[in-house]
Amino acid sequence: MKDKEEDRENECAEGDVELAGDIAIFGNAFISFVGAGMLDLPYAFSKVGMLIGTVGVFFVAGLSLFTMMTIVKCKQFLQHAGKNAKTYGDVGYYAFGKAGSTTVEVFIVLSQTGFCVAYLIFMSENAFANTGALSVSWWKLVLAPGLICLTCIRNLKWLAPCSVIADITNCFGFGIVFFTNFQRIREHGVQHIESVPMSAIPNFLAVSIYCYEGFAMVLPIYASARNKTGFPYLWSLTMVIVTFLFWSFGVTGFMAYGSETQPIITTNLLNNPETAKLAVWVTLALSLGLYLTYPIMMFPVFEIIDELINPKGSNLHEPKRIATRIITVLLTVGIAVMMPNFNQFIALIGSTACISLAFILPGTFYLALCIRELSCFLTCAHIAVVLFGFFMGCFGTYGAVLQLFSGEGEGHH
């Protein structure tokens, strides 16, 4: 155990990394949050309405910020104790040993893989909507070969051009969706929203939690920050901006289309003759962005898989390395085929892996490490957040699984 701990401290040693300034930290934090989950927010808002949706988004944002700073405090506590926790998994290791780090890695694999499955669902549904050729399931298979090639790239630095292109295309796509939403509201007014069922609230919260998909990036970004003291304020500012972006995107989308809002908002653009031509370019831009983001999101998954199948210190033979990429990409395709509905799948991932990483594990680790130094109020607060995450995860998972088995919202296969 001692040797393992020493190895981890050596691996996590900082000081040889070029630290980033506030602008770079803000950019990295912003990019880590803005993803495919935004496209489902208008539909989620249409199920719960303006009031509950607004309260829900800002509640999830505040709670997420609290737990993100909790993980940072765990790192700081360990630093004062002479230990260096660079990643979320390292915090889990020092809190509960190998079981803690393994738990984090399992949920990171589930969440990162889940994000990529959602990308496949989005890209295939839009490819089918734009072309009318093949089927949604066949489009998922067509996308696989290129993704296998991209995931075989060894160094994350070599994927940097993919990241830049993805950021540009995503900003273009989301910007056009915003513009068309505002234009439709101005021309047709605010659309009617039907009565809100209380059973839709867990699904909405799960989708909202999913949107903060950069949770696992808090510690790596913190470690790269030059201004550690100002990091909490900068991260909080980023969260405020991102949360306002999420809220406004969800609100304008459901105000524009009302109860007719689709699980993927771009489908509404494609179905509207006034925006159909523009929607083709929007979906192409977003699909390209997500296609290039796929290998970046899967990179930490392959690092975990490579370490799992390889004894420490040995080299992974190229055929075996490529085989793991092929199998994993095809596995995400298979899951995407079985889970055809975008909203249901996002709700399922949000209720399981995302809630665990965001609400359950941070407080659990913090209590394990620092409970002797916490006041009674803070102890109760962290326990309350952990319990909230647990019960919301149970309710959200139950609702998402129930919808999946009922076959609600199935698309073209």
Please render the helix and strand layout as text.
Blueprint: H1 2-11, H2 22-33, H3 41-80, H4 88-96, H5 98-131, H6 136-151, H7 160-188, H8 201-211, H9 218-223, H10 231-257, H11 265-271, H12 276-309, H13 318-338, H14 342-370, H15 376-406
Radius of gyration from the alpha-carbon trace, in angstroms: 21 Å
Query: Which ranges are low-confidence, i.e. pLDDT below 50, for 5 or more consecutive residues?
Result: 1-17
What's the mean pLDDT score?
80
Query: What is the element string, with H for helices and E for strands?
Result: HHHHHHHHHHHHHHH
| Biggest sheet statistics | none
End-to-end separation? 50 Å
Number of helices, where a helix is a run of at least 4 consecutive DSSP H or I residues:
15
Q: What is the overall shape?
A: globular
Helix content: over 70%
* Counted beta strands: 0
Structural class: mainly alpha
How much beta, percentage-wise?
Answer: under 5%
Which labels suit this protein?
413 residues; disordered N terminus; mainly alpha; 0% strand
Structure report:
The protein has 413 residues and is mainly α. It is built from 15 helices and no strands. The protein is globular, with a radius of gyration of 21 Å. 44% of the residues are buried.
